[in-house]
Amino acid sequence: MTTVRGARGARPAGAVPAVEVRDLVKEFDERRGAATVRAVDGIDLSIEEGEFFALLGPSGCGKTTTLRMIAGFEEPNSGEVLLRGRSVRGVPAFHRPVNTVFQDFALFPHMTVMQNVLFGLKMAGTPAKEARVKAEEALELVRLPHVGARKPSALSGGQRQRVAVARALVNRPAVLLLDEPLGALDLKLRKTMQFELKTLQQQVGITFVYVTHDQEEALTMADRIAVMSEGKVLQVGAPDDIYERPTSRFVADFIGETNFVIGVLESTSGGIGALRLPSGRVLRGALRDDAAVIGDSLALAIRPEKLELVAGHAAGAAPAAGAAPAAGDPATSLPGVVTEAHYLGTDSRYVVRADDGIEMVARIQNQHRGYADMVSVGTPVTVAWSQEHVSLLR
Predict the structure, then answer these.
(1) Under DSSP, is residue 211 helix (H, G, I), strand (E, B) or coil?
(2) What CA–CA distance (Å, rounded) separates 76 from 116?
(3) Would you state the pLDDT for residue 66?
(4) Nearest to 164 by CA among 113, 209, 122, 111
(5) Considering only CA atoms, which of 142, 138, 172 is closest in space to residue 155?
(6) 124-169 confidence digits (pLDDT tens)
(7) Ramachandran quadrant class, 158 (left: phi over 0; alpha: psi -120 to 50; beta: rest)
(8) Can you tell me the distance from the alpha carbon of 352 to that of 380, in angstroms, rounded to the nearest whole number?
């Protein structure tokens, strides 16, 4: 049976998605009389019940506009949004089974925390006694049962963020939409709240759709990620799929740090491509673009932490400090010289220049004694990797 990965494990495929976006398009007039700008360009998404789904991309890529169309704050020019299988075209935001948490939290400053959480229940006509119980449960859920009588101004940034989540969850929406809700927090608190939000989502079991430009946030919290650029969805997958097996150079470049080596596709066999560099050297890697043909210009992409540094240039040479032995296969290695070496605490970052001018960044985990075990600038080394860690991308 086919299954879909999600926050609470595998679920049968074929169930009605919590959110479905079909060929969605949104255009804006940049200024009066000017040509329109297509902010969202025909995207398709299917988000499962109970999933923590992230829309990830740089500013201006269309992720917030997509969220606003799901919420009902914007109407698409064409295409369709379905919530639990029902089209919501023309349905106003306050009649959709969704709630939204914004970056600025949007709490009413003149109301207490309890009054803020109660507000949506009152608008829905919930009886006062029942509303009070639900509001108290929501504050308990976000671990703030003791702040109900305070005003938002008396709370820390992290507490205000949790109150905003409690207010959004108190009506138990089918989908909770979060538009960069951690953006206003300091770095340490933001990291803490990432784990708290993920734990909370798993507890309540509600579908979360989370907009962010922060790759670490998406990788930490999401069950699946949609990477967007210029109004299009470039890749959708689990965090490890996105990171380990990018299908485009943009995705590989945007998610984390990546080395790129440019060459021409010379041959393919069993999903492995041979890339000829301008120097004549041939390197191999997994071919991620099904449309690539012999003669195409491609980029070999590999993460710095997937590289090993081997002392010297000979095959079978001893490993450099902090590295594991490498096979010395000329199709998965480059001889060169260390030109930069930086101690970063958790790891060391090296820049190696190959004899044909290619530069590769390698990051070696710090499992030894810091500076004493680092490879010195000027040391001849071979940068080596496993073929499975390489992607050939258009």
Answers:
(1) strand
(2) 31
(3) 97
(4) 113
(5) 142
(6) 888 999 999 999 888 888 888 898 899 988 988 888 888 888 888 8
(7) alpha
(8) 9
Q: How many CB atoms lie within 10 A of CB 172?
A: 13
Q: Which of 176, 163, 165 is nearest to 208 (CA)?
A: 176
Angstrom distance (rounded) from CA 64 to CA 103: 11
Question: Tell me, what's the pLDDT at 33?
Answer: 59
Phi, psi torsion values for 194, nearest 5 degrees? -60, -50
Q: How far is CA 280 from CA 266, 288, 304, 335, in A?
A: 11, 22, 23, 14
Tell me which residue of 198, 175, 168 sits closest to 49, measured CA to CA.
Answer: 175
Helices within 209-360 (DSSP H only): 215-221, 239-244, 249-254
Among candidates 210, 304, 288, which has minimal Cα distance to 251? 288
Distances (CA, A) of 128 to 121, 133, 147, 357: 9, 9, 19, 72
Interatomic CA distance for residues 116 and 41, integer angstroms:
37
Q: How far apart are CA 329 and CA 384, in angstroms?
A: 8
Cβ neighbours of residue 346 closer than 8 Å, sequence gap 6 or more = 365, 366
In DSSP terms, which residues pair with 354 in a beta bridge?
336
314-324 core/surface letters (b: 16 or more CB in 10 A; e: else): eeebebbbbbe
Query: Which stretches of the chain drop beneath a pLDDT of 70?
Result: 1-14, 31-34, 313-328, 369-370
Instruction: Write down the residue that tokens 């206003």 correspond to.
Output: 184
Where does residue 1 rank: exposed (0-12), middle (13-18), buried (19+ CB within 10 A)?
exposed
The token pair that represents 82 in the structure block: 């379905």
Place of tokens 């926050």: 7
Could you give phi then psi for residue 101, rounded to 5 degrees?
-110, 125
**What pLDDT, on the 0 to 100 scale, is given for residue 291?**
83
Query: What does the pLDDT read at residue 164?
Result: 87
Q: Are 370 and 302 in contact (CB under 8 A)?
A: no
User: Of 99, 116, 84, 113, whose CA–CA distance to 172 is shortest?
Assistant: 99
Dihedral sign for Cα atoms in the order 5, 9, 13, 15: negative
CA pair distance 183, 193, nearest whole angstrom: 11
Q: Are strands 224-229 and 52-56 parallel, antiparallel or unpaired?
A: parallel
Beta bridge partners of 301: 260, 391
